[in-house]
Batch of 2 targets.
Target 1
Amino acid sequence: MRSRFSRSGMRVCLAAGMVLVLSACSGGIMDPAGPVAAGERTIMLDALAIMLAIVLPTMAATVAFAWWYRAGNKRATYRPDFVHSGRIELIVWSIPLLTIMFLGGVIWVGSHRLDPARPLESRVRPLEVQVVSLDWKWLFIYPQQGVASVNRLIIPAGVPVHFELTSASVLNTFFVHQLGSQIYTMNGMRSQLNLQADRPGRYYGQSAHFSGDGFSDMNFWTMAVPVGQFNNWAAAARGNGPVLSAANYRQFARQSQGVKPFTFRAVQPGLFDAVVRQQLPPAPGPETGRGGHTMTSPGDAH
Amino acid sequence: MSDHKRLDGDRNDSAPGDEGVNTHEPLSGVKGYAIGLALASLLTAAAFILPGTGLIWGPAIPAALVVLAIAQMGIHLVFFLHITTGSDNQNNVIALAFGVLIVALVVLGSVWIMNHLHHQLMTPADMMRMMR
Amino acid sequence: MFGKLDWSAIPFDQPIPLIAAAAIGVILAAVLGWITVKGHWPYLWNEWITSVDHKRIGVMYVMLGVVMLVRGFSDVMLMRTHQAAAFGASQGYLPPEHYNQIFSAHGTIMIFFGSMPFIIGLMNFVVPLQLGVRDVAFPTLNSVSFWLTASGALLTNVSLVIGEFARTGWLPYAPLSETSYSPGVGVDYYLWALQIAGVGTLMSGVNLVTTILKMRAPGMGYLRMPMFCWTALGSNMLIVAAFPILTATLAMLTLDRYLGFHFFTNEAGGNPMMFMNLIWAWGHPEVYILVLPAFGIFSEVFSTFSSKPLFGYRSMVLATLFIVVVSFTVWLHHFFTMGAGGDVNAFFGISTSVIAVGTGVKVFNWLFTMYGGRVRFDTPMLWALAFVLYFVVGGMTGVLLAVPPADFLLHNSMFLVAHFHNVIVGGVIFGAMAGYEYWFPKAFGFRLDEGWGKLAFWLTVVGTVVVFGAFYIVGLEGMTRRLQHIDNLAWYDWIMVALAGTLLIAGGVLAQIMQLVVSIRHRDRLRDETGDPWDGRSLEWITPSPPPVFNFPVLPDVHGEEAYWEIKQRAIEQQQLSEVPDYQPIEMPRNSPTGVITAFFCTFVGFALIWHIWWLAALGLVGAYVTFVVFAWRDEVEFEIPAEEVERIDRARRESRQVILERGAPA
Amino acid sequence: MSGATAQAGRQHGARGHDPYALGHGHGGGGDHEATGHGEGGPASKRIITGYGFWIFLLSDIVMFSGFFAAYAVLAGETAGGPGGRELFELPRVAIETALLLLSSFTCGLGSVATERRSVFWTQIWLLATGLLGVAFLVLEVQEFVQMVAEGAGPQRSAFLSAFFALVGCHGLHVGVGILWLGTMMAQLWVKGFRADILRRLLCFNLFWHALDIIWVALFTIVYLLGSGA
Ligand code: HEO
Ligand code: HEM
Ligand SMILES: [Cu+2]
């Protein structure tokens, strides 16, 4: 892929190198652990390289022109009537235009290929996970396994995961940097996301959209484990922990922070759909703020 | 003095709403407003009555209504607001065109975006409803 | 009686805002006391507060902007120091409910009450001068606009002590901003402050568009307007077209909060996504409203300090209009991650990056303006050079964010924060600083001290590179914006670097203030006698510094693309000034307190609505209406300056011009 | 600075300074007449005022477009409550439309009377315009009250929120217009046809006609399409 830009190959390496050195293996987005994140990172670096090929010379020219044509330089020729040139005008428009045309191609293809709702190509049947963001914790429901996990996402490595996502209250963003593609979770909406972890590991995940007082610590570890281990975990989870019923859910959906990870032994079927369809009403917010009391509680409308 | 030159109306420029500077067109004054009123009434009546008559193919009615509305807005602009294509009116028309462009972008853009979002984020229940 | 307002509104439990407010209160009382003791009130009232002179209003706008930029920067100091202390087990010193107000207030204040007034102030001051006319189209309305903006700024700052500010971010995304999740008055403060200031901005936009399109000196065809007037036109067209969308959106949220409507709620079919859609349909054009005038300032600066006309003027005009139109087709790039699907994302991604074409054209033309010039490195030019170097990077990362798959990784990260500060600080703030340094002599009759100016420049530029460089990197490492507490220690080092950079910027801010103090003290030495300190090219430099109320004794007759340059060269060539004109009496609009009084009532209406004090709101509305009627009833709206007076003032100007002439080449 | 610059100035001096090769360096204030086309100096105050108000109206229309967009998106969100088909009464809307259209006409007659400088007829037509406007408002308020009484208030569903906001916003404009009109009639009474009052009359006419245009969009999109045509 890179060799296509051989003319700016140097700069590709430079740019990629720079960025990589700066953030090597930090667990950030430069250290992908799955096909989606890897594809996105490549696109990002490609785009960066293409643009640097124009931006760096522009910056160099700025310094060079300013310095050479400084008022004190006797050797520079003063040409006050050099103010218009049809040729330069044409060049000036076409350089960015051509760049953007190429970039536009990348955008078009990339947007479709890496559309979060698009299933990943794989021979393995995807694992289904239903994600609910709550104030301020994460609920991961495994409909195929019949269990649920709070504030910890366990997935089998090498298996595509199909997420369905919604929110119990306000907008949040589900984001595991090393897996790629963040997406909004919204009450009454069902977003879709397809990700895969290629290798086992522990990946940092968080809400990437501000959602109120408990937002900062609304993060979770994603554990990608070998398939066998995943199955063991699911079996163990079925063995203990509370049951997630509609009544429990209402309780659980109230605002709380710093909830330690735990699992639900069973989940009332259709719970996720009930949340999406707002049959389970949106979770309540805080009781008061400064200078105000809740006038209507969000459940009242129903 | 150049800046005191013309205090009452430029020959090549007119305020929006003012009748053209070369006023003595046939369609000016009371007559203009009367024609405007007649045409607008006609279009309004058509919009209210036609859909009930069965004269228009059902699914095409929204399109017909929208066209009637656009036509009537045009009538208002021309006969009540005196927006014309005359050279004295260029600035007014350009401003209007810019406004219409923005309105179109905002309304159509929003509808397009929200439709796609709705489609993509549809809940299973909605999907059932769509099928029906 | 007082609606929801009672003593619990005052945050006695939070020492920081209380102390800050007390300090501000003391300073304010001291200033007011000083004015009273010195007996300056009549002067202030007659010459400034009720002034309808576009130059005075422009200066007041800029002053408001500067004060609010400093205010917004104090928030930055809080955020940076807090975050540096809020890693792992440590919680820092600001609880979430306070920290969340701070970044929201920072964003809101910086955009609406820092940058906007600064930029609008410069346009107000400069545009009529550059067009060669005596004032804007609607001088009294101009004063109303200014005071409404000030009213919004006041409400925002009052929220510091009475109640709270929004804790939702600078754009109050629903449903977080709905009553269910934000029951306090914070969002209400936000709504009314912005609604009032927004109306002011909108009217200012109407005013300037009309001025530019309908009031130009004889001979000043469209393609003879200085570039700054073009970008001002573009910016104000955007204001006129975009701000009403903000008004509508905020009104909908207000209806939701006050009357239980369901536009954006989770219940009864409300659609929070619609809020994001509408707010960004305004929000994206807004960033070009800010940056276009800055582009204009740089165009003037590059040309003046390269001693050359602007290169590629026609392309520049085209690029400006191009940006104006295209900026209305890109707003979805702020929510690629909402999941609208490949087609929509691709369309908006591409249209976003297309803006880079228009901007790129501008950058290249600035470069070629320097090519073959005689570049002088005065402070405005330094800001301009730093701008190009800095802004192209910010623009590039913007285009990167416009690539949806890349945005899926970078959205809402510190990388995004770095992007927009990179373009806002590097574009808008650097532009505002360049304009400030460039037009200051024109406004006040003396130059600013170059030494302090350059120090401020270097500190600020290095500081911003450090801060936002660090943000880019932690962004790539996955750090999210708006974190009150950080439990990922990998980011620690870069947050400390950012803190160090912030201290550098703080030094820059101080140096900038010192520059003003030192320059005022040495104003006699720095006096600008000629009215043309930079060897300028457009009509503002033909007037004396500061210009008389009427700007031009006789409207200049424009004969070429660079109105003043051409007049100046002709005079130098013929070794004489143009003929003494036939002076006529000049009618100028009378000063009017309409603006302050309207704003006074609006502030009360806003405050009353925030606290549900309905009678006060009604009273305020009636007051505003009465003001309007009284204003409409005035009989004498103008006063006449006799021809002899005009002649006397212009004689002084002509004498100083003679100096330029004899020098043959002004400095 | 130097000879070279002066040189450049001199070169262009003869045919006007045209560094950008735009090709119309003839210059001079006298050639063209109107600001709009470039060179005639500031426009007259009437044109400036009218144009400024025109720009304001366009911005107002953009604001309406925000409400229209919201309505278009939320029109289907009845949350189990009543929809347009059940709620809208077209006969009333037809009367409202007729009233507003007629008021636009009387408003225009008023401007003709103003052009002829007839205070009497101007006042008469303004009064007629105002009364028609009031009648329109009365019908609209009646409709709102009736809907709220039926439990179809704006809190009922997102559709009704958008409906009340959009139609109400137009109604609010009509109300403000009537207030303005009353104030101006009083002014005209006291002060006669002063230049500034003539300008305000021009603006009022623009405003009133624009409201009628918005109403056309409103009755078509909200009422006719919404009542299931
Ligand atoms: C003044 C303010 C300003 C300016 C000028 C810009 C300019 C641009 N912005 Fe930025 N932005 C601004 C302010 C903001 N932007 C934001 C967010 C934002 C996002 C959303 C990211 C996200 O939320 O995930 C995108 C996609 C962009 C894209 C762009 C692009 C493509 C440009 C272009 O206009 C840049 C064009 C300039 C270029 C490219 C450099 C010069 C060109 C050359 C040298 C030619 C050659 C180059 C190429 C062909 C690439 N911006 C936000 C976030 C708000 C929030 O979420 O709170 C703000 C405030
Ligand atoms: C000059 C130095 C400045 C510094 C060091 C600075 C720093 C910051 C920081 C640290 C944040 C919070 C980042 C986070 O979310 O964690 C922030 C947010 C923001 N800043 Fe600045 N800023 C500066 C100037 C400006 C200016 C001039 C503007 C606008 C004109 C601006 C607009 C914003 C906005 C809109 C936000 C987002 C607020 C939000 O998240 O709701 N900043 N800034
Ligand atoms: Cu944007």
Target 2
Amino acid sequence: MIRIEHLTKSFGGIHAVNDVSFEVERGSITGLIGPNGAGKSTLFNMVAGLIRPDSGRVWLEDENITGRRPHQLFHRGLVRTFQIPHEFTRMSVRENLMVVPPAQSGENLLQSWLRWGKVRREDRAVLEKVDEVLDFLEIGHVADERAGNLSGGQKKLLDLGRTMMTDARIVLLDEPGAGVNRTLLGKISDAIRRLNTERGYTFCLIEHDMDLISSLCHPVHVMANGMLIASGSMDEIRNNEEVREAYLGGGISGRMGASA
Amino acid sequence: MKLLEANGIYGGYGGADILKGATVQVDQDEIVVIVGPNGAGKSTMMKAVFGLLHVRQGEVLYKGKPITNGKPEQMVRLGVAYVPQEKNVFPSLTVEENLEMGAFLIRGDIRPRKEKVYEVFPKLRERRKQQAGLMSGGERQMVAMGRALMIDPQLLMLDEPTAGLSPRLIDETFERIIRIRDLGIGVLMVEQNAKQALAIADRGYVLATGTNRYEDTGPNLLANREVAEMFLGG
Amino acid sequence: MELAGIAAYLVSFFTFVGIYAILALGLNMQWGFSGQFNIGVAGFFAVGAYTSAILTTPESPWHLGGYGMPFLVGIVGAVVASALLGLVIGWITARLRTDYLAIATIGIAETLRLIVANERWLTNGVRGMSGIERPYADFFAALGLSSAMGSLIVVCAFLVLVYFLVERARQSPWGRVQRAIRENEPAAEASGKNIGRFRLEAFVVGSAIMGLGGALYAHYFGFLSPEAFLPLYGTFLVWVMLIAGGSGNNKGALLGAVIIWAIWSGSEFLMSTALPEALSGHAGPLRVLLIGVLLQVILIKRPEGLLPETTPKTVPFGKRD
Amino acid sequence: MDLLIDLIQLSVYGVVLGSVLALGAIGVSMIFGILRFAHFAHGDLMTIGAYVGLSFIMITDAPIWWALPAGMLGAALTALVVDQAVYKHIRRTQPVILLISSFGMALVLRSIVQIVWGPSVQSYPTGIQRPWWVWEIAIVPTHIWIILATIVIVTALHLFLTRTRIGKAMRAMSDNMDLALVTGIPAERVVMITWLIGGALAAGAGVLLGIDSRLTPTMGWNILLPVFAAAILGGIGRPYGAIAGGLVIGLAMEISTLFLEPSYKPAVAFVIMVAVLIVRPQGIFKGAL
């Protein structure tokens, strides 16, 4: 579904990402792991349109999406979440989700002024969707809370909820488990799995929590020093000597570049 | 009496706690390493100890005296120096000026201290008039550590001192850390290069999801099969 | 004071409040909703005022004009002209960080004031434009009302219209996106919103509303000179009103306009009567000092204003437990 | 030929104006570097400095140049008081709140000037200025003194920033506030010193401007825009760039009078600034505190 071809990016002469290629299959939950500074986030940001690659291409289906802005990618069905949750701080949780659906006619100011009835009708439909998402994520009890007051894990769920408010079916998750306690982590991974099996979402995620990776992801790609060093199932990865070295440090030369 | 004790620390960046009862202790003359998966709260622990993050519960003791939620300035006065992970030099200042900033709180002649740092890092003497921002990653790390040594600390806290360095420089850095320890300075550091760090450590802690999982001598932790597993799960 | 005097005073008081409330609502659109820092309100105010004045006044040897257009054409002209100005400035400053936007907007306002003061063919310069009529006076005279009263009614009518439009904008999905962009730009972009477009829209509509305020001022006051568009009157008071009332909250903007104008005009009255003789020559600066200190106190003690921003009632039906 | 003479003559004026702008812009730049906001009351600090200097020499009957240290002291203390009374309390909120506050503070300072010194135009007793003629260029003695005074002040600042402990700490804080804190640099004290120096530099600009022309309560506000333009042109947060920025803006403003009404001078500065912001939002000159 997403095809990454020979992506390369340097910062100040250091290869953060060096000629990486792989594919994210439709309907998969693809994992991307690697030690800090391996270039995972840089790669992610290139796919998500925040950083322009020095060379290489990103394809979505058969369309070249290299260098597209995030809002353009959004309208092609590709959305992302952030490592540190990005909530709309002083807006309620419900509003946070209501912002997302594209092509709301009320986003046009003239329509809002002149066709209030239609705008309200649409809002009602959006609200129903919001409530459904809140129920799905089991955070309905904080719907009227300011998003800034949520706990870190709840914000992660809200981030995931925002992706559910779209028609997008390919979601890039940047460390969905970072800084989240065990209980919520279970909830998050559960939500990801259900979205994948029940609703046909495709996920590509960066994660450090190996439990989450091994329970969810297939296949898993491993990066180190800006390069792809292994791909396969979690079991194959686990028995790969090079991966072991990369994670425990020492063996791999030139471990440089942007931090994850 | 321990040099530093941080017992049962709870805290985070607002919202949920990242640290959930983590404990770390350092003696004089020892290198203590904190390792663990990302998001375990390693760097957070360092910040909590140094007063950069609010400790919600638990206590930090320095030479037996409580210093929980002290100001960084106070820590420096007590003789604790901290080197953050990134952006740990003043880029527009020269090497020498960076060192002088390290000794900002010291009254009196700081030249002997500078000399002492130049002895540990001879390269810095050659480059003392150079702007720190124009130096390589390895050299910057030397400047950062030299800056921290200027207060003649009893405890040196290093947050991932080898991040982004090549293997040769990593080895050099660890050698220097051993020399610093041999000067009688306690070293507390967080490391991603767990294998090497544990190899030089007198003691190590493995942190996961904000709590202590393992605590042992460096070599013992290295030999521990379960600890190795932690980095790849399962 | 006689009853008639009090009544006349109240009419003038509320007319000014109405005009300032319109300006504050325009600023709320830019700052309160969208987080765009415009301290060149006076510039848009001036463009609106002069545009309507030039379009509607009879021919004069002293300045451009003689088009003798109807009142509503003047109003529309003012709105369009200030919207166009907002479009140009908003487009130039779209990529700038807050501080630069602030400097750029005050720069354009000061430059416009220089043009107004120096281009005598256009505006009669510092001598000002006089004889701007209240074209609605005849209509109200027929109803037995004074033209001052007529001005108040006209201003209030426009205020109601503007309030309605701005409040609906706030409650609409459009306003929701504006607040989302203000709160977290990367997340808004990741949610598929074209940030540049939304920003520009808020800036342009806010500018147009300020232009409308300018036009109403011109017809009410009947005389325009660069003095009226000093940053003090045109920009500073409006900002204090919005901050005091509560930025992001349209009712706050209204409340701020009433309270601050009451303090501002009340202080004039107070100082003309109660000031010791030695200070009587300093009434003007003392009033500015008072408002300036008031702003600092609000920023320190209650930065969210008297009426803090609220969440719009997005839920037309209550599904919540 | 005449055009060339005009051009040179205007360039001399431009350097004089540029000196004044540079002193103001350095202060704006320093405050931005450390506190991260554009200080809108800076022009009115200039005004305060000019008036304090004038009062000092009037009261003590001292020679005119004594106005410079007196005004600098007065404005430095004013800046410190303003910071401690107001800015200090809102420093932990968003920088934009400081921006609004300083905009209000500009009016507060101006009204204080009006109350203390009155609204009328005043001037320094420079006496009759007999120009020296070099070729066909008139050079007024005070202009030489203004440029020299600027050089002295800038040199002193340079020595302060590069030779003293506290000066280096200021540069360190503008480089990296977080690192400065963990190094043990006392941030509040450095901020206070920043205000003292920023205020003193503003007053330097104000007194020199007052000597060159006249004093009005709005003199500082009227020159604020060119000062900002100079700071932005130099790369805001970079004081040495501000010097170059000041000279470029000063020259452009004076030379523009060849073909524009002199009253449009601030607009010229503004247009240059906008052009710079469009092309290079970071400013033109590279350098650091």
